[in-house]
Amino acid sequence: PYEHILKIPNLINKWKSLEYLTLCASCFQLQEIIYQISIHCNNFVGLGVPNAYIGKSDASAIATLLPNIKELDLRCANIEKEYLVMILKGCKELEYVDVRYCEGFDERVIDILKLASHLRTFTPEGSMLFDSDVDKEGVNDGFDLDLMFYCGYRSF
């Protein structure tokens, strides 16, 4: 519920042993949460924000405030290429990055593949610059129902 999400930044100072946190896509306080984690959680190694919109300020917060994370799950997120590059350059200790089915960059972008080449696991499969299967009225001619479940869509 919305009121529980608002409490997360104020609770993080009590979670000193927090190592991994997965947030819902509608978490609009991502920057504040990341800031609190950077201050209070010395053992923090991984962040999951599937289905989220990751803008410039979110990517910058991840790259600058969580430079030592090892795992990042952004499955089905909306993130532009430049912001993913910012994260990959800033988080030098990343080992695992899941960006499957993201929108905002193509899975075959050479720059990203080179930056991620040292990672133990990097999964960009299904990511694309935009969803070409959805027409202007929002009608989907070939949308895969498995993808809908994978990304957590429940709007049908």
Structure description:
The protein is α/β, with parallel strands linked by helices and 156 residues long. Helices cover 34% and strands 12% of the residues. A 5-stranded parallel sheet has the order 1-2-4-6-7, with no helix packed on it. The chain has a two-stranded parallel ribbon with strand order 3-5. Helix 2 (30-40) packs parallel to helix 3 (56-65) and helix 3 runs parallel beside helix 4. The chain is globular and about 40 Å long.
Number of helices: 6
What ranges have pLDDT less than 50 throughout 5 or more consecutive residues?
Answer: 133-143
The average pLDDT score comes to 86
Order of helices and strands: HEHEEHEEHEHEH
Report how far apart the termini are: 21 Å
Widest sheet: strand ordering: 1-2-4-6-7
Largest sheet: 5 strands, parallel
Strand fraction equals 5-15%
Number of strands: 7
Helix percentage: 25-40%
Write down the overall geometry. Answer: globular
Radius of gyration: 16 Å
Structural class: alpha/beta
Give the topology, please.
Blueprint (H helix, E strand, L loop, with lengths): L1 H10 L8 E3 L7 H11 L5 E3 L4 E2 L1 H10 L5 E3 L4 E2 L1 H10 L5 E3 L11 H6 L5 E3 L21 H6 L6
Parallel strand pairs: 1-2, 2-4, 3-5, 4-6, 6-7
Helix pairs in contact: 2-3, 3-4
